[in-house]
C-alpha cells in the first residue's frame, strides 16, 4: 500500500496524540456501526432477519474489527472505562484520558449517525414515523441502552459495575505478557469473544453498555435526530448510570486482576532457575509465540 | 500430494493471469455454493432447518474456505469491489481488474447453478413449481439480493456503499503489515468474521450483497433457469445498485483507512529501507507474530 | 503425562496400522458422540434445548475434537471418503483404505451406541416407547440420515456427491503446504468451520452425511437396538446413497482442487528468484508459521 | 502494568499453593459469573433476550476467560474432576486435590452469588417473589443443575460419567505435546469450543454439569439465598450425582486417552532424552507451531 508515498510523508500527522485520537474516533465509529446496525436490523425486521443474539454478535465483531483497525495507532481502547483503567494501572498517561474519551464519544456518535441514515426508511416504517423512547414501537433502544422496567436504580448501577469489572478482569490477562496471554496478533478475536460472553449474559437488566462512549454517543445522536430530550430524561434521568458505573467497574476489575493474579505470577527470570524444583505443577509456559519486540527510542519493550 | 509430478509440470498453466483467473473462478464458485445453498435450505425448509443466521454463517464460512482455496493463486479477492479497491491503492494492476471481475461473476454463476441443481426438487416443492420473483412463494431471493419494500432507491444505494466501505475498512488492517495484523495464515477466519458481522447488521435493507459478482452471477443464473427477466426488471430495475454502489463504497472505505489510519502508522524503519524496490506489492510480513509497540510518554501501551 | 513409563513401553502397540486403526476408532467414536447426542437432545427436548443449528455445531466440534485426538496417530480421516481421496492423491497407501474404513464404521457404531444408552430414557419418553423410522415420533433420524420426502434418488445422490466434493475442495488447501494453509496446530478448528458450513447449507435434502462411516455406523446401531430392518429398507433402500455418493464426491472434489489450483501454485524455490519480477501481485507468503519439521527415519518431511 | 512494583514485591504471595488457590477461586468465579448470568438472562427474560444456546455459549466463554485468567497461576483446572484426573495421570500432586477442589467450590459459590445480586430484581419479578425449585416459575435451575423428569438415576449417572469422560478425552490431546496439540496460547478458545460442544449435546438429561464445583457452589448459594433445603432434597437427593459421577468419568476419559492414544504416539526422540528429569510435569512444548509428522510407508500423511 504505497499509494502516494510523498503525499503520505507530507500529510502524516506528526502529533502523536492527534494520531491516537483519529484512531479512537474511527475505531469506535466502526464498533457502533456494527452494533447499532444489528440492533436496527433485528428491531425493524421484527426479528425476522436476526434475533437478540445478532446484536450481541455484531458488537463482538465490531470490537474485533475496531481493534485490528486502530490497535497499531491508539491501542484500541474504544471505551473510556478501559482508558481510565489503563491510566490507573499506569499504561496510559492521565493527560490522555479526556482526549481519548471525547474521541470515543465522537466516534460513537458518528457511527450511530451513519446507522441512522442507512436505516432511516426502516425506522420510519417500523415506528410509523414517530420516533419514541418508550412504548411498543419505540426505536430509541436501537441506539442507546435503557433499563428493564423491573430493575431498580441500585441494581442497574451494580449491573454496570459488575459487567465492566468482568470485562477488565477478562481482557487484562489476555494481553498480559507475565501471564499466559493470547498471541498479540489474535487478541482481537479473543477480546471479541469476551464481549460476546458479557453481552449474552449481562444484558437483560440494562443492555450491557459497559462503555460510556458506546452509550452516550448514540444517545446524543437520538437527541439530535428527533427522539427528543426523553432519551435523557426517561427512567428518571437514568442515562448517568452507564456513564458513571462502568468507570468504577473497570477500575475495580483491573485492581482485582492485579491484586489477586498479576502480582503473584511467577517472575520469568526467576522461573528459569527454579524450574528444577521437581514440583509437579503445570509450569508457566515460556513464550510459545515468542514475540520479538522492537526497541523504540531509548527503552526496550520488555519481553 | 505428489500425484503425477511429470503430468503436473506439463499441464501447469504458465500464464500467470490465467492461473489467477482460474483461482478467482473456483474461489467465488465455493463462496456462492455455501451462501446460496444455505439460502435454499432455510427457505425451502420453511426455517425448520436453519434460520436467517444460517445464511449469514454460510457466506462467512464460504469466504474463509474460498480464501484458503485461492489466496495462494490469485489473492482471493472474490469480489470486484475488492479488486477495484486494490487497484486504487496500487496492489493490483488496473489491466487485471476486468478479467478478475468477469471470472468472479462466472464463478458466482457456476456456484449458484450447482445449488440450483442440488435444490431443484426442494425449490419445486416449495414454490409449487412456479419460479417467481415476488409473492409469498418467491424463490429468487435464494440466489440474488432484492430490496425490502420500504427501502427507497437512495437508501439502498447508501446501504450498499456503507456496507462495502465497512468491509474494506475492516479487512485492510487485518492484512496490513504496517498495522497490527492477524497472522497471514489466519486471515481467512478473521475476514470471515467481518463478513458475518456485516451480514447480520447490514442485510435488512437489501440483503448485503456488497459484492457485484455475488449478486450478478446468481441473478444471471435465475434469468437462465426459469425465473424470467423480472429478476432484472423488478423494483424498477434495481439490479444495478448492488453492481455500482459496492464499487464506490469499496474505494471510499479503502481511502478512509489509508488517510485516517495507515498514513499515520509508525514507520518500521528496517522495513522502509528495504522496500525501496519500487514494486507495488504487499510485502511479506516479516514476523507474523511480532507486534511493534509504541511508547507513549514513558510507558508502553499494551492493550 | 508420564504415567507408568515402563508399562507404557511394554504395552505400546508396535504395529503401526493397528495404532492407526485405534486412532480412527476413537476419533470417529468422539465425532459421533457429539453429533448424535446433539441430535438426540434437539429431538427429544422438542427443540426446547437446542435447535437445528445445535446438531450442525455439535458435528463441527466433534470434528475438531476428534482431529486433535487422533491426528497425531492416524491422520484423523474419520471418513472413508477422505481416506479414499487421500489414496487417490497418493497420501495414503491403498492397502490401508479398507482397515481405515472399517475402523471408522466401528467407531461410529460405538459412539452412537453410547448416545443410545445415555439418551435411552429420553428416546423412550419422546417416542412413547416405540422406535420408528417414519412418522411424527420417529427417532431413527437421531442416528443415521434419511432423505426428505420430496427428494428424488438422483437429486439425493447429486447432493451427497456435491457435499463431499465441497468438503475435500475446502479442506485440502487448508493443509497443503504449497498453498497458503492454516497453521498445522490450528487445522482442526478450521476444518470444523468448513464442516459447520456444509451442515448448515447442504443438509436440507438428506442430512449431509458426506461420510459413509458417519451414516452406516449409527444405522447399524439402530438396526441392532430395536428400530428394525426398516432403517435399511425405507425410502426404497436409500441407505446406499450416503455410502457410495460421498466416495465419488470426495475424489471429484480432490481432483478438482489438484487440477485447478494445486498444480498451478507457484513453486517456492522458483519464487525466490522470480520475486524481482516487479509485478504488482499479492505474492505468496512464504511460511508465516515456519514450521520446523523433524526428520523421522530416512526421509525428510518436506517443508 | 508496573503499578507499585515495590508494594507488589512485598505483598506477593510466597506460598505457591496459596497462589494457586487464589487463581482457582478467581477462575471458577469468572466461569460461574458468565454461566449463571446467562442462565438468569434467558430465564428471566422468558427467552426474549437469549435462548438455550446462550447458556451454552456463556459457559464456553467463561471457560476461555477463566483459563486466560489463571492458567499462568494454577493451571486453570476450574473443576475437581479435572484436578482428580490430573492427579491420576501424575500432573498434580495428590495433596493439592482437596485444596484445589474446595477453592473451585468457593469460587463457584462467589460467582453465583454475584449473579444472584445482579439479577435479584429480575428473579423476583420472574418468580413473583417466591423462590422455588420446581414448578413453572422455578428459578433454582438458573444456578445448579437438575435432572429432567423422565431421567432415571442410573441414566443420569451414566450421563455425567460420559459427559466428563468426553471432556477429558477431548482436552487432554489439545495440550499434550506428544500429540499434535493446539498452540499453548490458544488452548483456552479450543477448550471452550469443546465445552460448548458438550453443552449443546449432553445437557438434555441433567444440565451437563460435568463439574462438581460448578454444581455444588451455586447449589449452596441457592440454599443460603432462600430456595431452601429442597435444592438438595429434590429428585430424591439427586444432588450427589453431579458430585460423584464426574469424578469417575473424568478419570475414565483420561485413562481412555492415555491407553488408546497417548501410549502409542510416536516418540520424539530429542524430547525423550531431555525429559528424564523424573519430574511429573507437563513440559513446555518446544515448538508450539511445529508438528511432527509420521512417515507411513513411503509417503507422509499430511491431513
From TrEMBL, chains A, B, C, D:
It is a multi-pass membrane protein. InterPro entries: Aquaporin-like, MIP, MIP/Aquaporin, MIP_CS. Keywords: Membrane, Transmembrane, Transmembrane helix, Transport. The chain crosses the membrane at residues 21-40, 100-120, 237-260. GO terms for molecular function: glycerol channel activity; urea transmembrane transporter activity; water channel activity. It comes from the Eukaryota. It is found in: Membrane. It catalyses: urea(in) = urea(out); glycerol(in) = glycerol(out); H2O(in) = H2O(out). This is Aquaporin 10a. It comes from Denticeps clupeoides. The lineage of its organism: Eukaryota, Metazoa, Chordata, Craniata, Vertebrata. The gene is aqp10a.
Amino acid at each position: 500500500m504505497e499509494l502516494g508515498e510523498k503525499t503520505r510523508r507530507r500529510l502524516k500527522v506528526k502529533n502523536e496524540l492527534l494520531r491516537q485520537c483519529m484512531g479512537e474516533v474511527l475505531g469506535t465509529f466502526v464498533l457502533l456501526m456494527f452494533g447499532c446496525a444489528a440492533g436496527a436490523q433485528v428491531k425493524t425486521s421484527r426479528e425476522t432477519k436476526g434475533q437478540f443474539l445478532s446484536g450481541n454478535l455484531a458488537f463482538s465483531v465490531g470490537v474485533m474489527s475496531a481493534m485490528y483497525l486502530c490497535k497499531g495507532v491508539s491501542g484500541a481502547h474504544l471505551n473510556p472505562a478501559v482508558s481510565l483503567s489503563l491510566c490507573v494501572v499506569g499504561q496510559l498517561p492521565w493527560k490522555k484520558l479526556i482526549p481519548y474519551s471525547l474521541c470515543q464519544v465522537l466516534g460513537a456518535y458518528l457511527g450511530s449517525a451513519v446507522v441512522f441514515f442507512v436505516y432511516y426508511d426502516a425506522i420510519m416504517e417500523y415506528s410509523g414515523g414517530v420516533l419514541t423512547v418508550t412504548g411498543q414501537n419505540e426505536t430509541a433502544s436501537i441506539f442507546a441502552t435503557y433499563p428493564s422496567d423491573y430493575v431498580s436504580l441500585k441494581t442497574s448501577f451494580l449491573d454496570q459495575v459488575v459487567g465492566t469489572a468482568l470485562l477488565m478482569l477478562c481482557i487484562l490477562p489476555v494481553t498480559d505478557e507475565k501471564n499466559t496471554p493470547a498471541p498479540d496478533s489474535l487478541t482481537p478475536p479473543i477480546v471479541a469473544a469476551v464481549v460476546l460472553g458479557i453481552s449474552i449474559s449481562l444484558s437483560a437488566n440494562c443492555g450491557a453498555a459497559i462503555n460510556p462512549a458506546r452509550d452516550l454517543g448514540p444517545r446524543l445522536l437520538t437527541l439530535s435526530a428527533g427522539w427528543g430530550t426523553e432519551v435523557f430524561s426517561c427512567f428518571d434521568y437514568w442515562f448517568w448510570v452507564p456513564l458513571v458505573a462502568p468507570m468504577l467497574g473497570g477500575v475495580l476489575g483491573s485492581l482485582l486482576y492485579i491484586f489477586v493474579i498479576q502480582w503473584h505470577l511467577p517472575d520469568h527470570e526467576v522461573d528459569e532457575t527454579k524450574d528444577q524444583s521437581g514440583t509437579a505443577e503445570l509450569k508457566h509456559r515460556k513464550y510459545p509465540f515468542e514475540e520479538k519486540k522492537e526497541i523504540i527510542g531509548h527503552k526496550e519493550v520488555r519481553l
